[in-house]
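Re: your question about Methyltransferase type 11 domain-containing protein

S., sorry for the slow reply, the queue was backed up all week. Below is exactly what I fed in.
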Amino acid sequence: MPELESDKYYLNHLQRTNAAIHSRYSLLGVHHRHLNEFILRQVSTLPPQSAILDGGCGLSIWVTDEIRKNYDLRSMDCEEQSVEFCRRYYQDGRYIVGDLYDIPFSDASIDAITIREVIEHIKEPERALLEMKRVLKAGERIILTTPNYSSPLLFLIENIYNRFFSDIKPYRDDVHPSKFKFQELKALLKKHFVLVEYGTIDFGINLKAVARKK
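Result:
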């Protein structure tokens, strides 16, 4: 996709998402807002200038100006055009191209990793979690959200509402290759981390977790 065309696409998507987040009438916006609030609440407990990696950052929907100012935030995504757009749009050179199987940071160098609505897109989530564990400092944490495939409400949204009443197309299996149920994600995190917080958001639609490196 040419640069001008890709910039127009990303800008339109960002503007639509932000408009929904700030609208009291958009259910999707309310949901985005609740996901963001969870991430921000956890990040705000970190000391100033902590090193944070936002893995699979996309268009940085949850990141505020205050976060950019107060923390050493590195935002990483595997889509080069998205990263280039964010560098220009946010005037922030700390965006990097990379993936969660091979994080370009040294061992024990990161204070926190945020993965907001990312792990469901990863074909080998355990491999990615082990790589995140490698770069985390001892006792530090990952903060994540992901759809909860134990939720009957999520099933209705994805397979009925999105299919017939929304402009959001139902997800193909290759878009969400890792569809975690409540107990599955919990068991995987406990295998490699100490689980600090675990639960759901918005009537069980999403899973939320904070897990520390052992």
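Helices lie at 3-21, 27-43, 65-70, 80-90, 125-135, 152-164, 182-192. The longest helix spans residues 3-21.

Happy to talk it through on Thursday.
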